[in-house]
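User: I'll paste a sequence; please echo it back and then give the predicted structure.

Assistant: Echoing your sequence first, then the prediction.
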Amino acid sequence: MSIQVTYELTADQAYHGVRRANRRRFAIGRACCALLAICGIVLLVMGRWPVGAVLLVVALLLAFWQSFATRLGVARQRADNPGPLTVTFADSGCAFTTVHGRQAFAWSRFSRLAEDQDYLFLHARRELPVAVPKTAFHPAELAELMAMLQTKPNFRPS
């Protein structure tokens, strides 16, 4: 089996794909920000305003940094690989072809393979997974690919 798909995402689509792939990481970040903010407010109410103010500022900076760092990473990835991305799925692994060349990965190199209703997420690196839109596939190709991915131990269906 070999399925090849070529697609190009806008910067905003790529960012939202990465956010969806890392929902848990973003939720942990938001929980940490909320905890810091609550601690800061409690300290302000107790009259320890310097420490409370510092915790509130850190909570706000952390909240903004998480989104900013992700957008920056997506922008950097797009600058490194401009143009369309061609992904070839085979029984042995997956290959990515960009303007710079081809890079192949065995299925065992992926830390996680996941999906939601709109994207397939290929986590070859922990920081920025590759989000492949399901709309890039013909329905028969997508069904064949999903059947093959479900045999992989690191696949997590939606």
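Strands lie at 2-7, 85-90, 93-98, 101-106, 112-115, 119-123, 130-133, 155-156. The two ends are 23 Å apart (CA to CA).
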